[in-house]
Write a structure and sequence with these properties.
seven-stranded parallel beta sheet, 15 helices
């Protein structure tokens, strides 16, 4: 649907007394039919991709999750060092979240108990590491897709080993695990890989054929930029006409992004050379009891005051209610701290379908 057609539809519906909410819903519903099987690429870390990818994979056969490969802590780090396999944790998280098998989904956060060397390991991490050891990296992932009945495609952003490095003034912090715990001293630390790994060739192919590219919410340094700074990623993103859409974080991290505005996330990506067209952010009030729990941990909501959006230039800012009201449950065996707020993946998808309805499909 062209932009002119969209405006025409707005005028027609407005003439029939529709509310603005009804107009948006009508546009999104029309998008469901116009782009019945779009090619969507979702890029990010294990948490953000695990939230969005299952929803997109359920509504298009052409959904691809591109997952960062810099994790070196916890069960993932131990398996990497002991078995000489790539970082499997974020891949496992996304794949098991999207599984059509409810038992697999329920076991996503389960970890082994006991006093031996397997204590604390994710069962999924061990299974995926075994697939990779047996069949090799790429074929092992295909076997895991089949074993866990995963729709769509989950790809590692790179197949090559590397470390994350953050330069913050005179300080240099190495590895994702150390960066996660580091408290920045400036507003503009610089992130890079050492060595710079090559982009997975399959990722480049998916980007070139994509109708939309979504940057999932997550830690701006150790999830988003960890994936977006790999090899030829930025060049591939700049070369495609597909819209690049950032799903903005809802909660700021106390060590690195405290008191940040949505514009700060946009400008941090752009400062690192990442092209961006749209930012989709939450603009509704949240449950005060949940906010109190975050405040207790030194965390706060990402600011979305309208006056600062002028700082993002040509990037289109779309504010909407994109927060899930579904209660979260976690395994008692899970040792990783996880957020209490999640994006509503269905709402995010509907907004992106609406954006696609207003523009022609990308051509290859």
């Amino acid at each position: 649907m062209s932009i002119i057609c969209c405006h025409f539809l707005l005028l027609v519906l407005a003439g029939r007394g529709k509310t603005l909410g009804a107009l948006k819903a009508s546009l999104m519903n029309s998008a469901e039919h116009i782009h019945s099987n779009p090619q969507i690429v979702i890029i990010g870390g294990g948490g953000g991709c695990a939230t969005l990818f299952p929803e997109f994979a359920a509504h298009t056969e052409n959904a691809t999750a591109v997952v960062s490969m810099s994790d070196d802590g916890g069960s993932t780090g131990r398996l990497s060092r002991e078995l000489n396999v790539p970082a499997v944790g974020d891949l496992r998280n996304v794949m098991m979240a999207a599984s059509r098998n409810a038992a697999v989904r329920d076991m996503r956060y389960n970890r082994l108990d006991g006093d031996g060397g397997l204590h604390g390991h994710s069962m999924g991490n061990i299974a995926l590491a075994a697939c990779i050891q047996t069949y090799g990296f790429e074929q092992g992932l295909q076997v895991a897709h089949q074993m866990w009945d995963v729709p769509g495609e989950v790809l590692p952003v790179t197949l090559e080993p590397h470390h994350l490095v953050m330069e913050d003034g005179s300080a240099t912090v190495v590895t994702e695990n150390e960066i996660d715990e580091y408290k920045t001293t400036s507003r503009e630390p610089w992130l890079r890989h050492d060595p710079v790994p090559s982009l997975n060739r399959l990722v480049g192919e998916r980007i070139r054929s994509a109708d939309a590219i979504v940057f999932a919410a997550g830690s701006v340094y150790t999830s988003q930029l960890a994936a977006l700074l790999v090899g030829e990623m930025r060049e591939e993103l700049a070369a495609t006409s597909a819209p690049k859409i950032l799903v903005a974080n809802v909660v700021a991290e106390p060590h690195q992004t405290r008191d940040w505005h949505v514009a700060d996330y946009v400008n941090t990506l752009r400062r690192h050379g990442v092209p961006l067209d749209v930012v989709l952010y939450n603009n509704v009030a949240l449950d005060p009891s949940i906010l109190e729990q975050y405040a207790h941990d030194g965390e706060c909501l990402v600011d979305f005051a309208p006056e600062r959006f002028k700082e993002i230039g040509s990037v289109q800012a779309i504010g909407a209610d994109i927060i899930s009201r579904v209660g979260l449950t976690f395994s008692p065996h899970d040792v990783v701290k996880r957020g209490r707020i999640r994006h509503d993946a269905a709402a995010v998808r509907r907004h992106i379908w609406g954006l696609l309805a207003a523009r022609p499909r990308a051509t290859v």
